[in-house]
Amino acid sequence: MEFVAYASSSKGNLYTLSDGQERILIECGLPIREVKKLLGFSLSGISFCLLSHGHSDHSKAAADIMRAGVDIYTSQGTIDALKLHSHRAHVIRAGKQFASGNWIVLPIEAQHDAPEALAFLVYNKTTRKRMLFATDTYYLKNAFAGLDIIAVECNYAADILQSNVESGAVPAAMKNRLLKSHFSLENVKKFLKANDLNKVQEIWLVHLSDGNSDAERFKREIQELTGKPTYIAGV
């Protein structure tokens, strides 16, 4: 099972997951022309798209993706927020798994300032591997066993954010929003410690903040903590 990060920031998010036979899209937060360019100028090989929430950096191409013939699975809150009223928009709910092709997906409740934001536990029937994808959430209520790939937001570090607030580079109001909507390095560490990492083959840190993160530091600290190969999405 191969996870690929094409874009991962507040400017846009786009990822794929493939088992060598079927490929799914996770997020579509770039203009459709960029999405098609990154995916080889065709969406015909995409089985479906998982959409975590309605913020533009994750959903910008949603309507165009559906017009191109790709089904989207997302929450009712996201469908309503984006007005994705199409036969290709499928409602999914946290805690209720669904299957499509080689994939079984369990949506998970995320904690973000968007209606019914979701994370995803994705299992592939061909490879028998399992991936957790969680972005734009300041914590996860669940712990997981048997994961092979973890792709988790690591948006900021508390000390970097505080330094930016004190210097005036980041308004205090923005700090308060980040604390209640995005995963910090410190909380990612707590989350990873709470999970069974025995089978994990790779950890991806996604959606790093442009000004409140340090990619090399984050990679180093997570790799030292877990002993697992760690990658920075979008770098």
Topology:
Elements: E1 2-9, E2 12-18, E3 23-26, H1 32-38, E4 46-50, H2 56-59, H3 62-67, E5 72-74, H4 76-82, E6 89-91, E7 98-100, E8 103-109, E9 118-124, E10 129-134, E11 149-153, H5 158-167, H6 172-179, H7 185-193, E12 202-206, H8 215-226, E13 230-232
Parallel strand pairs: 3-4, 4-5, 5-6, 10-11, 11-12, 12-13
Antiparallel strand pairs: 1-2, 2-3, 7-8, 8-9, 9-10
Task: Give descriptors for this structure.
7-stranded mixed β-sheet; 235 residues; alpha/beta; 27% helix; single chain
Give the beta-strand count: 13
Supply the CATH superfamily name: Ribonuclease Z/Hydroxyacylglutathione hydrolase-like
Report the CATH topology name: Metallo-beta-lactamase, Chain A
CATH domain class? Alpha Beta
Short description:
The protein has a single domain (2-232), classed as Ribonuclease Z/Hydroxyacylglutathione hydrolase-like (Metallo-beta-lactamase, Chain A, 4-Layer Sandwich), CATH 3.60.15.10. It is 27% helix and 28% strand.
Notes on the protein architecture:
The chain has 235 residues and is of the alpha/beta class. It has one domain: Metallo-beta-lactamase, Chain A, CATH 3.60.15.10. It is 27% helix and 28% strand. The protein contains 8 helices and 13 strands. The protein has helices at residues 32-38, 56-59, 62-67, 76-82, 158-167, 172-179, 185-193, 215-226; strands at residues 2-9, 12-18, 23-26, 46-50, 72-74, 89-91, 98-100, 103-109, 118-124, 129-134, 149-153, 202-206, 230-232. A 7-stranded mixed sheet has the order 7-8-9-10-11-12-13, covered by helices on one side. A 6-stranded mixed sheet has the order 1-2-3-4-5-6. It is globular, with a radius of gyration of 17 Å. The mean pLDDT is 93.
